[in-house]
Every structure is written in structure tokens, then in C-alpha cells.
């Protein structure tokens, strides 16, 4: 259930220097075989966790990415990290429509197609309607996004370079999509990434496949910097030893997503009428989305409070649906923090533990120097009653998805660097895309012999 901004303005390269190591997958030496972690203690050795540098930002780019090495010899591909969907896919080196921009990041299948009769193929389809003419046929897929975008392709399996935090590396064979027909909503250009890294809870997700192979614990986390960049990690070795707030994953029909709730909304520390919110933590969403009722109530709370301030609506700024301007253009979020009150989400089944949303967690400063509300109407983009905590509200926090213990955790952090001692330091129109992870079986292209 991801909401992405596919708008491309300028690609800023943000370098993240990690103490002790920098991730260069091509330079690491291989270890022989995956290890079985099922009987290990909850705190595993360094070799059971992996970390990747993250680049990107909420505005103006609209997504955070990691680079992964695929194939033998390995080749680097940039992926939009997405905890709101399962299937990982990359641009296919085939006649295609709607391809993303980098021609040097096209993946070419080499007799490594997943067969239709395999369990992995069945795992990408949400219903039993998908039928194989023959078990040895290729496994076709289509993932459709709620903003009417989609990816159409064929499932393949290839080596992925997974660097551990101790400097060793494994190269497991992972299933992913080779997409040859992508659709992007609206007039904006598609992103300059090669594809999407699906990090959801379904069996075809990148995380689930690594865990099934015994390579890592079923835990993932990310730290997205408000300045741009950050880091993504697999396994539990990089979870801070103290300060993490944990809430249980919310049992719902959205079992493939990281859901939490029910939650109440607080404004300036006071309870509001907004309650019983089911929330999805989604790194693939640029902004935070609330259902129409909750969204309008939030807009009213913020707007009414601003009546005392010297801010006016910036109706000529279409960066986001609601923007405000001051006496002179704002240069940073620091200049507007005093005008806006903090929000918070209080989780009723977790002793009212709160997910804090200070102004910098729901506002952006546009190129025009205006402050815009980064909370959008989810009903308008097809989310109906669902609510999403997107990148804008996940910034400057280590956010952890612990599938083994079915809980979600977070703690404020400096996401510009990783502390080696594991202690924490102190851009509405439908063009803001929505990813719903819905699969169907319409897939006409044929690639030939599949791998047994």
C-alpha cells in the first residue's frame, strides 16, 4: 500500500559515511553457504545482519533508494525501497513500454525464469484464479498500484549480493520480477530508478525470501534522514540497545503490510475527535495519508490554529494541495516550526504509546519558499478508509519491523550516520502515486525455456 511521488526534478546524490565500513558489494569476498538461523538466539552474530546505504529525499525527489548487485558477474541496480509492497521488480531488457530512464540498468533474463508451477509463483497471486497451462510455463505477474500505475512482467531468479556487517558476503538466488511494461500515472516522468525493492511481509518479498533461506532473522529497519539519504538494514544486530518504543503489529486483513492501530490523533498534546485509525508504515510512500474524514479534521485543526499567525495560503504553489507563505520565503523547516503545533499518534493497545509528529514530520519547504502540508487525502487516491505513515513522518527515526515478534519499533536518531556502539544519537492530485500490491495474471510476453 505504497504512495510514491514519481515526479523527477533533479537527482541529488547523498553520500552516507558509515563508521567501520562502507557498502561496496562488488569488493567483498564470498562465503560459501547460507547458515540456518532458526535455532539461534534473538541476538545473532554480526554476520547475520546486512546494511545498505540509502540515497534520496522526500522533496523534491520523492523517494529513497538503495543499490543492489544482481547476477554473475554482478551488476548494480537502483531500487525504490518499499515496505508497503512485496514484489521486487527491475526493468527488463526487452521491448517495453513505460521503461524507467537508465538504459544501463536493464536486466536481461538468461534461462532463469521461474516456472508457473513453483510455490514462489503461486505466492505472487492473491487468489486461486491464476492457472498454469503447464507447470513448466513461465511465471507471469502484474502488480497494480492504487494510483492506476502498474508493472507487468515475468518472474525470474538470480543471485543477489548480500553484504554482511562483518565484511563477508553471500550471493543467494532470489526471485524477482523482470518488468517489461510499466505504467505511471499523470504527465510526470517516471523515476530514474531501475525498479522497486519489495520489503513487505508476503512470501515473495525480498526480506521473506532471505529469511526462508536462513540468511537473516525476519527483521528489517531503516533510518531516513530529513537531510536526504540514510541506511537500510536486514537482521536485528543494528537495533539500538535502548530507547526503542515497541507496539504490536495490528492483526487485520492486510497481513502483508506493516499495520498498527487503532490509534488516536493528538494536536498540541491534546486529544482530537480523530480515533480508531488503522495505520500502515510504508517506506514507499512519499507522504502521509489519512482517510477523508481524518484528513479534513487535521486540515481544520492546523488551519484554524494558523489564523493567529502571519501566514497566508499560497494558492499559486501546486507542489502539494495545501501550502502557506510567510512575509518572505522560508529557507528551511527550522524557520516555520514556531508557527505549527506538533501532532502525535497514540496507540490504544500499546498503553497509549505515542508516535511523535513534530512540524518537520508533516511539512515540506518548496522551491518557492512556502510551507506545505505533507499529510494528504488517502481516499482521493483510492485508499478508502486506510491510513499510511509515509516517508515524511518516518524521517530521523530508526524504524524497525520485527516479524518474528510481530511488533514495530522506532526511536529518534541521527540518520546521517550509523553509530557503531548501537546507541542512538540525539512533494490532492493523484500524481502522488499509491502502491496497493494487487496482482493479476494478464501477461502476454513469452520468454521461452524456464530454468528447472
Question: Hey, roughly how much beta strand do the residues contain?
Answer: 25-35%
Under the CATH scheme, which class of the largest domain? Mainly Beta
- Distance between the ends: 33 Å
Give, in spatial order, the strands making up the sheet with the most strands: 14-28-27-12-13-2-3-4-11-5-10-7-6-30
Relevant CATH superfamily of the largest domain: Acid Proteases
Compute the gyration radius: what is it? Answer: 21 Å
What is the count of β-strands?
30
Largest sheet: 14 strands, mixed
Integer tally of domains: 2
User: Architecture of the largest domain, CATH level 2?
Assistant: Beta Barrel
Outline, from the CA principal axes?
globular
* Helicity level: under 10%
Structural class: mainly beta
Output the number of helix runs. Answer: 4
Which consecutive residue ranges, at least 5 long each, have pLDDT under 50?
5-47, 419-452
Mean of all residue-level pLDDT scores: 81
Fold-level CATH name of the largest domain: Cathepsin D, subunit A, domain 1
List the helices and strands and how they pair.
Blueprint: E1 2-5, E2 50-57, E3 63-70, E4 75-82, E5 89-91, H1 119-123, E6 140-144, E7 150-159, E8 162-163, E9 169-170, E10 173-183, E11 195-198, H2 206-212, E12 219-224, E13 230-234, E14 245-248, E15 259-267, E16 270-271, E17 277-281, E18 288-290, H3 292-306, E19 312-313, E20 323-325, E21 343-347, E22 353-357, E23 363-365, E24 371-373, E25 375-377, E26 387-389, H4 391-394, E27 397-402, E28 407-412, E29 432-435, E30 438-440
Parallel strand pairs: 4-11, 5-10, 17-26, 18-25
Antiparallel strand pairs: 1-29, 2-3, 2-13, 3-4, 5-11, 6-7, 6-30, 7-10, 8-9, 12-13, 12-27, 14-28, 15-16, 15-17, 15-21, 19-20, 20-24, 21-22, 23-24, 27-28
Amino acid at each position: 500500500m505504497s504512495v510514491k511521488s514519481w515526479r523527477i526534478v533533479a537527482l541529488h546524490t547523498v553520500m552516507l559515511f558509515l563508521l567501520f565500513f562502507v557498502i561496496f558489494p562488488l569488493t567483498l569476498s564470498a562465503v560459501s553457504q547460507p547458515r540456518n538461523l532458526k535455532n539461534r538466539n534473538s541476538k545473532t552474530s554480526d554476520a547475520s545482519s546486512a546494511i545498505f546505504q540509502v540515497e534520496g529525499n522526500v522533496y523534491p525527489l520523492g523517494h529513497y533508494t538503495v543499490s543492489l548487485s544482481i547476477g554473475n558477474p554482478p551488476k548494480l541496480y537502483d531500487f525504490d525501497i518499499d515496505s508497503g509492497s512485496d514484489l521486487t521488480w527491475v526493468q527488463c531488457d526487452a521491448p517495453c513500454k513505460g521503461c524507467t530512464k537508465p538504459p544501463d540498468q536493464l536486466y536481461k533474463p538468461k534461462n532463469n525464469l521461474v516456472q508457473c508451477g513453483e510455490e514462489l509463483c503461486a505466492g505472487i497471486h492473491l487468489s486461486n484464479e491464476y492457472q498454469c497451462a503447464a507447470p513448466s510455463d513461465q511465471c507471469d505477474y502484474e502488480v497494480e498500484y492504487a494510483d492506476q500505475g502498474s508493472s507487468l512482467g515475468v518472474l525470474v531468479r538470480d543471485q543477489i549480493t548480500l553484504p554482511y556487517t562483518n565484511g563477508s558476503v553471500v550471493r543467494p538466488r532470489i526471485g524477482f520480477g523482470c518488468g517489461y511494461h510499466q505504467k505511471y500515472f499523470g504527465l510526470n516522468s517516471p523515476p530514474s530508478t531501475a525498479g522497486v525493492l519489495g520489503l513487505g511481509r508476503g512470501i515473495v518479498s525480498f526480506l521473506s525470501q532471505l529469511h526462508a533461506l536462513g540468511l537473516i532473522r525476519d527483521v528489517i529497519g531503516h533510518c531516513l534522514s530529513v537531510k536526504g539519504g540514510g541506511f537500510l538494514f536486514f537482521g536485528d544486530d543494528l537495533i539500538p540497545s535502548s530507547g526503542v518504543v515497541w507496539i504490536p503489529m495490528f492483526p487485520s486483513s492486510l497481513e502483508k503490510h506493516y499495520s498498527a492501530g487503532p490509534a488516536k490523533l493528538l494536536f498540541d498534546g491534546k486529544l482530537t475527535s480523530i480515533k480508531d485509525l488503522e495505520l500502515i508504515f510504508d517506506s514507499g510512500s512519499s507522504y502521509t495519508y489519512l482517510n477523508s474524514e481524518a484528513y479534513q479534521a487535521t486540515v481544520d485543526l492546523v488551519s484554524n490554529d494558523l489564523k493567529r499567525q502571519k501566514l497566508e495560503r499560497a494558492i499559486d504553489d501546486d507542489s502539494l494541495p495545501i501550502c502557506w507563505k510567510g512575509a518572505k520565503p522560508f529557507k528551511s523547516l527550522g524557520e516555520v516550526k514556531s508557527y505549527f503545533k506538533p501532532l502525535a499518534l497514540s496507540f490504544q493497545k500499546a498503553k497509549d504509546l505515542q508516535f511523535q509528529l513534530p512540524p518537520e514530520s508533516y511539512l515540506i519547504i518548496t522551491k518557492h519558499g512556502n510551507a506545505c502540508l505533507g499529510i494528504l487525502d488517502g481516499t482521493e487516491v483510492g485508499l478508502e478508509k486506510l491510513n499510511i505513515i509515509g516517508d515524511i513522518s518516518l524521517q530521523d527515526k530508526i524504524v524497525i519491523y520485527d516479524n518474528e515478534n510481530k511488533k514495530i519499533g522506532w526511536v529518534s536518531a541521527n540518520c546521517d550516520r550509523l553509530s557503531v556502539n548501537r546507541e542512538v544519537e540525539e512533494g490532492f492530485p493523484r500524481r502522488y502515486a499509491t502502491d496497493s500490491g494487487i496482482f493479476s495474471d494478464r501477461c502476454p510476453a513469452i520468454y521461452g525455456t524456464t530454468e528447472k
